[in-house]
Amino acid sequence: MIRKFISRVLGRKGARQSDAPAIIAVAQHGLQREHISRGCRRTVETLQENGYQAYIVGGAVRDLLAGLTPKDFDVATSATPEQVRHCFRRARIIGRRFQIVHVNMGAETIEVTTFRGHHGEQGGNKAQTDEQGRVLRDNVFGSQAEDAARRDFTVNALYYDPTAETIVDYHHGVADLRQKTLRMIGDPRTRYREDPVRMLRAVRLAAKLSLSIDPEARRPIREMGGLIENVPPSRLFDEMLKLLTSGHAVRCVTQLREEGLHHGLLPLLDVILDQALGERFVMLALESTDRRVREGKPISPGFLFATLLWHEVLAKWEPLKARGEPAIPSLFLAMDEVLDVQAEKLAITRRIAGDIKDIWALQPRFEQRSGKRAYGVLQQPRFRAGYDFLLLRVESGEVDQAVGDWWTAFLNGSDENRAAMLLPQAPGEVKKRRRRRRTPAATGPDPDLAQ
Ligand code: ATP
Ligand code: MG
């Protein structure tokens, strides 16, 4: 018993390249070949028939063992990208930094990656890093053992061979998954320094798979979280998007806060979690996103980020309105300010920023329930997203229930019913507008637009 424990500990600590992996048979791992997509199986078989090693690797093996449906299937092989390309009729090499091959099998695209080599003392070819130790370039081919060692967590370094129905496990990943532990391969501090995004991945994968992060991997996160600042914004945006659309966003965000990862590092999360008013709204938005993901419905990143940042916009917009500034121009001012701050950290793409603005800009227009204006709102291209957003504002208590109910009835009503629903134009509506233009500081917010 003790010897077994010691050998287990040593085996893990001293995971050297020469260590023989465990070859786990189907009777032990229970993963069924039928759960692998046909295209992926075919890809692996073709590579093997051509004399190369080929395995399904990473998230797909992990998810299947955990009883989840994988998002996609990745293949790792001993063949170089050129060699892979020659094995298939429809395959193309993509990527510059590290080439991978996209193999098309019917409607499926399988990503095939050549085993990557080890960087560090033993590999001889030290990877290029920045001053903090973040790996900038790391594009050497290597053996399967090296490929396994450079993956992040033990549960992500499992290689499934659908032909032999075995799992090749260099780092006790199958056991860790059974014990519900997310364990880093190698020294966690070194691995976080090489790539700080691994801290976010730890939180996301733990939430997704209901794993607990091994204390050795968990402890350094609090003190090393600052390194995330060095990560390029586009990468951070991708990772945040993955986290928020994982179907477990509520759990992820809660755990990020527990790990102290939200503070000062990700302005977005600072915003989300540090304002009591906004927290309810954001949590409702994340709950509804999680629900949609789990039901297999599409979600729009624009909608998601619009919800996350809305209370920040309100915080800037309300004082402007209270000072008597015109409502719509000051809303646009507030929107731009908020998005500019985010742009420094998260590279929100222009298209998504456009979607976010459309949704926000519709909000004051939902107050307009008279005459042609209401019909105009219905015809906006982003009406549906704006309306869903309004309903969240209602649910969080920010907007009167009556406003949400009115729009639901208007949206679903017949032409006649709609016409009957229109509110009369408030008598002071036009006059007040004029008055406000003459003496801007003397009046309150536009009654049309007041919340
Ligand atoms: P999911 O697809 O559910 O988001 P995943 O683990 O498959 O999770 P991918 O980004 O698809 O994540 O990565 C595929 C595999 O590549 C991982 O399982 C892991 O083995 C390896 N990997 C990904 N990112 C890193 C990283 N930052 N450091 C080391 N290995 C990584
Ligand atoms: Mg994956």
From TrEMBL:
The active site is at residues 72, 74, 152. It comes from the Bacteria. CDD domains: NT_ClassII-CCAase (cd05398). It catalyses: RNA(n) + ATP = RNA(n)-3'-adenine ribonucleotide + diphosphate. Residues 424-451 are annotated as: Disordered. Its EC number is 2.7.7.19. Coiled coil: none annotated. Residues 211-271 form the tRNA nucleotidyltransferase/poly(A) polymerase RNA and SrmB- binding domain. Keywords: ATP-binding, mRNA processing, Nucleotide-binding, Nucleotidyltransferase, RNA-binding, Transcription, Transferase. Residues 54-183 form the Poly A polymerase head domain. InterPro entries: NT_sf (IPR043519), PolA_pol_head_dom (IPR002646), PolA_pol_I (IPR010206), PolyA_pol_arg_C_dom (IPR025866), PolyA_RNA-bd (IPR032828), tRNA_ntf/polyA_polymerase_I (IPR052191). GO terms for molecular function: ATP binding; poly(A) RNA polymerase activity; RNA binding. Pfam families: PolyA_pol, PolyA_pol_arg_C, PolyA_pol_RNAbd. The keyword Nucleus does not apply. One of its GO terms (biological process) is polyadenylation-dependent RNA catabolic process. Residues 324-438 form the Polymerase A arginine-rich C-terminal domain. It is an enzyme of class 2 (transferase). Adds poly(A) tail to the 3' end of many RNAs, which usually targets these RNAs for decay. Plays a significant role in the global control of gene expression, through influencing the rate of transcript degradation, and in the general RNA quality control. Belongs to the tRNA nucleotidyltransferase/poly(A) polymerase family. This is Poly(A) polymerase I. It comes from Candidatus Accumulibacter affinis. The gene is pcnB.
